[in-house]
Every structure is written in C-alpha cells, then in structure tokens.
C-alpha cells in the first residue's frame, strides 16, 4: 500500500526543496525577529498629570486628585490606582488589567476626566493623559556625559542641539530623553528685605518682566522692490540687561531689577542631581521602539556614540553608563554554547546507540532544520527571541531528534531482514506515518496546556510552550519528508553485523532478551507492581503539596546581570542639598566594592535612584548576590 512518503523517497530533490523552504523561512525570521529579555506582556498604565500652580499638597489632593480618582475609578479594565499629591501637581497612575486594550482604556479615562473638567479649579491646567507600557519603565541604555570644564547647563545645551537629534535618528530608537539636564534659564533670586523696604511685591516684578520681555510679529511693509517683516522686539538677552530692567518709577527715582534681586544665567531646574562614578553628569536614556530588535538598535547606538565621542568639546567625555542588552547578549551566547554542547552530546549518544556514522547523519541533519524552522513559527505567532523561547529551543533538541532516530532504526531493521535500501526506506516510512504523527501530537499536547494558563504566568510562558510545540511539529514534518529519503541513500545494508555496529546490535539483542525475561516476571507479580505504583504516586502527591511551601517562589529564576540597584526615599519636605548627602554616602559604598566597574545616581529632593555595574563575568569570580548583603 503506497503512501505520500513514497513520493519524497523516490524524488529526493522534492524532499530537499521542502527542507530548504523550512530553512530559508527560519533564516529570514532569525534576522528580523525581535530580541528581548522576557516575552512582552501587555500590562499598561495610564498616567493623569494635572498642574495646579501655587497650591500646596493638601489643596491639590482635595480639589484635584480626589475628584479625578472618583471619576476614573468607574472606567473599565482597571486593576488598581495610585496617586501622588505634591505642591502644584497631582499625578494619578492607573494600572490596567493584563492584556486589556490600553487605547480603549485611554479613551474611557479621557472621557471621564473631561466630564468633571468644569468641577476642577479654573486656575488648574488641563490634565495631561498618557499611556505608559509596563515593560518600558527603564530605557534600554543610558549614556553618561561628563565634563570638568563645562557647566551642566552648557552640557545640556550641547546635547539638545547636537547629540539628541543624532541619536533619535538612529533606526529603531523611539526617543532619547535627557535626564538630569539643566536647561538655560535666567534666574532672578529676589531679596525679600530689599523688596519690603521699597514696597515692591513679587507680582510687580512678574508684571515688569512680562511687559518688557515681549516678542511678536506685527506685520510687514512693502516697497516697489523690497519687503521687510516687522517685529516688536523688547526681549532681553543677558543678565546685565535684566539687571537694568526698570521695575518701578517713583517720583523720578528708578528702581531696577538689579536693586532688588540677584540676576544670573543659570538653569531652569535645580532639583535633579546626576552622578557618574561620583562625578556630576547628564544622562541620556535611549528608548527602543516596541517592535524593534533592541540588541541591533543599541549596537547601532554604540556605533553612533563612538562617532559622537570624536566630536565632543574639549574636556567633555561620554560613556555607556548602562546597557540592558549586554545581559541579553551574554544570555544568548550562553544558550548558543549550551546548544552546541547539546548537539555534540546528542551526536555521541546517537553514535553509541546506532553504531554507524551514516546513521548519525540523518538525525543530526534533522536537528538544525527543526530548530531553525521553529524560528519561523515564532515569527508567525508574533513571538520574540527571549530567554524563555531560547530555553524552549535548547530543551527541544532532545525532542526533535526522536522521530528521525525512529525512522533510521526502522529502516535498518528492514535492511537486516534482507530488503534493499530503497525498499527498506519505503516500507519503514509507511509503517511509521501513524506513530510519528501520534508522537508529534502527544509531545505538542504535553506543553500546550502551559500556553492556556491565565494571568502573568500564562503571558510569560505562552511563548515557551508554543515554541517547544512548534519545534516538535517541524521535526515530525522533517521525519516524514527528509529522514526516509536520507536513509534510502545513506545507509548501507552490510554494516549491521560488522565492526562497532555489529557489537552494538548484539549487545542490544542480549539486553532485549534480558529485559523481556524480567518483564515477564514483573507482570506475573501484579500486586507488587501496584504497591510500587501506589507508593510512587503518594510520594509525588507529597512533593506536589510540600515543595511550594519549602521552595523559593519566584516568577523567573534570579540571574546575575552584573548590576545592583538602590532606591532612596526621603521625606516630602526634604531638599536636594539634604538628600544628596545620603546619595553620596550610598555612592561611596558602591565605589568601595572591589569589582565595581562604575556607579550611577539620579537624585531628586524626596527620592533617588542609583546603582553599581560590576565587571564582566569573565574578569570577576564573586557573583552579584554575594555583594548584595555587603552593600
């Protein structure tokens, strides 16, 4: 009885074409598939920020935060809400449920905020509503710019004008944020005692600045040959010009701004302090597009950064302060090494059990085709190349080779019984169609339930389970299409009873006879079998109940990423000068660790964030978890 496998055995070119199609599809997926640390989870957050200038925290909470919270709480898809009321600003963070449509929730929240807009104080600004993805709380890389000559506001100005546009234009970069930057601003530090003596209020100063710092286009004038644009220009440019600004004229006496205030060209904000290895710096956060390959994008950013370094002003340096893709690269390299080790071990084991190099070639060829073909299925399903899918690929090495081994063994059995290579392959493949399909479906069905789990666990391990099932599916196709054809053309009928192959076959024949006799005795002692089965089942049940109680519970194993993070929380009324003292003390602790490569800190008046990056694994022997209690 003929089957579809006969077509591929008799027409080897067709079998090779099908295999090459699988390879080409997988190789193109390898170049375009997104690379991440973990699978992407759609847990978004919506932030509602409302500015209320001049109001203290209590007023902001009572007139802004509380009414908005009551209105937003009625929206659909909300898991929980967080709010923060500070002087002059209200921030509400709405955490959405897993996989809930963020754009639908944004529309719902916006409509409910608009509905109570009239109930808010008229002096409050319009609430700003934005979506923030859960997996984008930190940028993919942070760049540090330091200078022992330029001031932070001068460094910021250089970054805004020359560096930021270049990094933003790199393919795959979503945005390049400046952290800890100090934008140029004319600072007017008023002297309360002088103002009181001259009877001048802050409102008088503000009105004078508004009247005398004005720029507007008022029209144009035309002649027969020339057109001139007219501009009303009363704006001031230097600190000396601002000092000469007349605030009030009283009985012929001019009171100028320099009489009641210190005027300096400073920064717009002094409430952020950034340090890189103890030195003042300005950071830039590189955010990658959600559908872009972060490893390739940061690689292109590094190339552009090397070019930027050559053009920096004298005394200014740039470093890659933190690169989240470095750990991903290391993890991928480790997986590749593990994959190579696995392939070598499988090759040795197959050779020891089959006894022939020719027999080994068939399953060894099936392994890379199945694994590379699984990458195409990953791309088709919208998966990314991450630690969990890489784990699935490594685990699947031992599974995808089974079908090909079964085919080779069955063809060899028929050859030992006297059939030619071609007839043995035809008969052996026909016999194995149903078993291979059953094996493939069974193995895929074992892992598929993992993909059906709900919650965050299901979202993380769905890609793991379906990648594993996809690799097994491809291996079944290869076993029915390519393996019989290769067996028909590679195996030799005379090798079975000579040399190492003959020794292996005779050993397995003796083992089969020994196993058969012991199996007969075991089946005759059914009560003992039931007792052993019951005992093993009880032990398994005990382990199922007890292990979650005594083992460490974690969503994913803790990996040594070579970095330790620290968070500083200060009182709400703390100043940046007070908090920076403690941040510096923490930075000193970080720097005292022997394997510290560099440290970074971003400090605000009431909180801060920092950490230390350790030397690469190849140059240190102490793991990060050993340094954590020391720090």
Output the keywords.
55% helix; 4-stranded antiparallel sheet; 8-stranded antiparallel sheet; 20% strand; 18 strands; alpha+beta; 631 residues
Q: What is the rounded distance between the termini?
A: 73 Å
Structural class, from helix and strand content? alpha+beta
Instruction: Pick out the low-confidence regions.
Output: none
Helix percent reads: 40-55%
Output mean pLDDT. 85
Rg for CA atoms:
35 Å
Largest sheet: 8 strands, antiparallel
Report the principal-axis shape: elongated
Number of helical segments?
20
User: How much strand?
Assistant: 15-25%
Q: Report the strand count.
A: 18
Describe what is shown at a glance:
The protein has helices spanning 5-10, 12-32, 57-72, 102-115, 152-168, 192-197, 202-212, 239-243, 257-260, 294-310, 324-354, 357-381, 387-416, 421-451, 455-481, 483-490, 499-524, 526-550, 576-592, 624-630, and strands spanning 44-51, 78-86, 89-96, 128-133, 141-147, 173-179, 184-190, 215-222, 227-233, 246-250, 253-256, 261-267, 273-276, 279-288, 316-323, 563-569, 596-603, 607-614.
Write the layout of secondary structure elements.
Blueprint: H1 5-10, H2 12-32, E1 44-51, H3 57-72, E2 78-86, E3 89-96, H4 102-115, E4 128-133, E5 141-147, H5 152-168, E6 173-179, E7 184-190, H6 192-197, H7 202-212, E8 215-222, E9 227-233, H8 239-243, E10 246-250, E11 253-256, H9 257-260, E12 261-267, E13 273-276, E14 279-288, H10 294-310, E15 316-323, H11 324-354, H12 357-381, H13 387-416, H14 421-451, H15 455-481, H16 483-490, H17 499-524, H18 526-550, E16 563-569, H19 576-592, E17 596-603, E18 607-614, H20 624-630
Antiparallel strand pairs: 1-3, 1-4, 2-3, 5-14, 5-15, 6-14, 7-12, 8-9, 10-11, 13-14, 13-17, 16-18, 17-18
């Amino acid at each position: 009885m003929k089957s579809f496998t006969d077509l591929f055995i008799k027409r080897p070119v067709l079998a090779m074409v099908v295999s090459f199609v699988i390879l080409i599809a997988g190789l193109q997926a390898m170049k375009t598939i997104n690379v991440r640390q973990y699978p992407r989870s759609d847990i978004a957050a919506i932030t509602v920020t409302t500015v209320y200038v001049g109001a203290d925290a209590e007023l902001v909470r009572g007139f802004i935060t509380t009414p908005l919270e009551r209105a937003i709480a009625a929206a659909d898809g909300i898991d929980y809400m967080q709010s923060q009321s500070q002087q002059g600003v209200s921030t509400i963070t709405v955490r959405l449920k897993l996989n809930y449509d963020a754009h639908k929730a944004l529309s719902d929240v916006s409509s409910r905020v608009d509905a109570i807009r009239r109930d808010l104080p008229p002096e409050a600004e319009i609430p700003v509503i934005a979506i923030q993805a859960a997996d984008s709380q930190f940028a993919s890389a942070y760049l540090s710019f330091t200078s022992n000559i330029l001031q932070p506001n001068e460094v910021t100005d250089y970054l805004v004008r020359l560096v930021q546009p270049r990094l933003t234009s790199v393919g795959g970069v979503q945005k390049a944020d400046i952290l800890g930057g100090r934008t140029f601003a004319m600072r007017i530090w008023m002297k309360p005692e002088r103002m009181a003596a001259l009877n001048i209020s802050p409102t008088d100063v503000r009105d004078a600045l508004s009247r005398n710092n004005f720029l507007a286009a008022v029209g144009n004038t035309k002649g027969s040959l020339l057109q001139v644009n007219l501009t009303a220009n009363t704006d001031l440019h230097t600190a000396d010009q601002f000092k000469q600004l007349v605030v009030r004229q009283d009985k012929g006496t001019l009171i100028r701004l320099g009489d009641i205030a210190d005027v300096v060209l400073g920064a717009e904000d002094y409430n952020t302090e950034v340090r890189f290895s103890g030195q003042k710096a300005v950071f830039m956060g590189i955010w990658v597009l959600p559908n872009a390959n972060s490893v390739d994008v940061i690689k292109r950013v590094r190339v552009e950064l090397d070019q930027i370094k050559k053009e920096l002003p004298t005394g200014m340096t740039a470093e890659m302060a933190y690169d989240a893709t470095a750990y991903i690269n290391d993890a991928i390299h480790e997986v590749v090494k593990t994959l190579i080790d696995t392939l070598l071990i499988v090759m040795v084991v197959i050779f020891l059990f089959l006894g022939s190099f020719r027999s080994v070639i068939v399953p060894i060829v099936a392994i890379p085709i199945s694994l590379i073909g699984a990458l195409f299925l990953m791309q088709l399903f919208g998966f990314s190349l991450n630690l969990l899918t890489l784990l699935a690929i490594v685990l699947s090495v031992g599974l995808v080779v089974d079908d090909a081994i079964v085919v080779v063994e069955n063809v060899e059995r028929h050859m030992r019984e006297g059939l030619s290579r071609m007839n043995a392959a035809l008969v052996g493949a026909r016999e194995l169609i149903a078993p291979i399909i059953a094996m493939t479906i069974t193995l895929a069905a074992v892992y598929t339930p993992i993909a059906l789990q709900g919650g965050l666990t299901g979202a993380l391990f769905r890609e793991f389970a379906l990648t594993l099932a996809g690799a097994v599916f491809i291996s079944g196709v290869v076993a029915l299409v390519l393996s019989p054809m290769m067996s028909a053309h590679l195996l030799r009928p005379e090798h079975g009873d000579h040399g190492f192959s003959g020794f292996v076959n005779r050993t397995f024949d003796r083992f089969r006879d020994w196993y058969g006799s012991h199996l007969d005795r075991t089946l005759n002692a059914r009560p003992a079998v039931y007792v052993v089965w019951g005992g093993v089942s009880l032990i398994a049940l005990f382990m199922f109940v007890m292990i979650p109680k005594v083992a460490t519970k974690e969503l994913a194993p803790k990996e040594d990423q070579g970095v330790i993070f620290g968070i500083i929380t200060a009182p709400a009324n703390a100043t940046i000068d007070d908090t920076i003292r403690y941040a510096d003390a923490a930075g000193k602790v970080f720097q005292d660790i022997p394997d510290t490569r560099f440290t970074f800190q971003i400090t605000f008046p009431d909180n801060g964030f920092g950490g230390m990056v350790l030397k690469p694994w190849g140059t240190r022997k102490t793991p990060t978890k050993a340094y954590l209690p020391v720090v």
